Amino acid sequence: MGIKAIILAAGKGTRMKSKLPKVLHKVCGKEMVNHVIDASLEAGAKSNIVVIGHGGEAVGNCLPEGVETVVQEEQLGTGHAVMMANNYIDDSDTIVILCGDTPLIEGETIKALIEFHRKYGFAVSVLSALMENPKGYGRIIRGESKELVGIVEEKDASEEQRLVCEINSGMYCFEGKALREALLEIRSDNSQGEYYLTDAVEIIRGKGMTAGAFAGATSEQIMGVNNRLQLSEAECLMKKRINEFHMLNGVTLIDPLATYIESGALIGSDTIIYPGSLIKGNSVIGEGCIVGPGCTIDSSRLDDGCEIQNSVIVKSAVGSGSKVGPFAYLRPNSNIGRNVKIGDFVEVKNSNIGDNSKASHLSYIGDADVGEDVNIGCGTVFVNYDGKKKSRAKVGDRSFIGCNTNLIAPVELGENSYIAAGSTITDNVPGDSFAIARQRQTTKEGYLKGDKWEKKD
Hints:
Elements: E1 3-9, E2 26-27, E3 30-31, H1 32-43, E4 47-52, H2 56-62, E5 68-71, H3 78-83, E6 94-99, H4 107-119, E7 124-130, E8 139-142, E9 148-152, H5 159-162, E10 166-175, H6 176-183, H7 199-206, E11 211-217, H8 228-248, E12 252-253, E13 260-261, E14 266-267, E15 272-273, E16 278-280, E17 284-285, E18 290-291, E19 296-298, E20 301-302, E21 307-308, E22 312-314, E23 317-318, E24 323-324, E25 329-330, E26 335-336, E27 341-344, E28 347-349, E29 352-353, E30 358-361, E31 364-366, E32 368-370, E33 375-376, E34 381-383, E35 393-395, E36 400-401, E37 406-408, E38 411-413, E39 418-419, E40 424-425, E41 434-435
Pfam family, one: NTP_transf_3
Keywords: Acyltransferase, Cell shape, Cell wall biogenesis/degradation, Cytoplasm, Magnesium, Metal-binding, Multifunctional enzyme, Nucleotidyltransferase, Peptidoglycan synthesis, Repeat, Transferase
InterPro entries: Bifunctional_GlmU (IPR005882), GlmU-like (IPR050065), GlmU_C_LbH (IPR038009), Hexapep (IPR001451), Hexapep_transf_CS (IPR018357), MobA-like_NTP_Trfase (IPR025877), Nucleotide-diphossugar_trans (IPR029044), Trimer_LpxA-like_sf (IPR011004)
């Protein structure tokens, strides 16, 4: 028996007041629907089918490879949405129904629901949660032996039923055959004219099959996001969950409330992250690093023992023991070697810098291949753009580039070359050579004497 997940993600999300489909709004850097897919895969689902509708093309384009989509042209209720995926429902499958706007659901909870469902042999099991204030939610109604009797919406509930604190999450586990048969009998003869998946529970029980309710979720996990306020609440809860995970795995967050780590990041033990830092995308940070304060690490790799201060690193890699900042900027495709120093107000773009090299301050290194043990003096500019195309420069190992040097690409400096301060280099420099490219100094003695240079009151 395989496990398939059908994820409902067709709603417009009018209350979001956004042109972006609701399920594509991000929580800690990842679209809500992709959080749900991750949880489904963690729970053991072999395939995921996402029901799309409003903004369907955009939703489909953001889904991981291997996820199937079906289209719900008209949004006629949850039962109707599941009907759209009917061709994917096999009699022998266990079908999990999830909601694309519940990003906090966890894989362990879905897995526990499936195990509960199979252990007791239910045809349908509902994931439920206990809430102190269940106002607005459908209530789980149990029989004398605690089996699920039905789900009653609050507007239809009696006074006694409204006192029930166990609520429906909107997530279910069905046996494929039972679900297929129930979908054929769901009707839309209600005030909304919609097909409700909750009706499937009553239909299945009416056929003599059993139903269960698994009170294994927290109110946090089943929280749906319908507006920007709820989106911010989900962001805070997910941020807390992520930060706690890293701290329990040996990462020091000086101020967790002021540290933002997206869900895809990996961080090694004994790394310290200072306040105001953002770790974004699928960044990988090694052990024993120091990050911050005020850093942005976006989809980048930091090897063990790096120290980054007040800097921005985007889609780049920094080797072990290297120091970056303060106020440095590593733009995409920058690869920094081991024990390198990228100092204050240094910008690196699409460049490779070898081990033990340093650019201590106020330089631009763009489209360059810099060797090992190279010194790049203050104010050095790799001039890579002629107004039409970008060109690369190459600097050999153990070279020394003096302050205020311009390297006009394409140009190559051989190993052990020495460039005098203030030079503008337009030609290749052979190894073991000294290059100076500046006008000879002229000094006019006594030039400043005379009436025209005297200070006026």
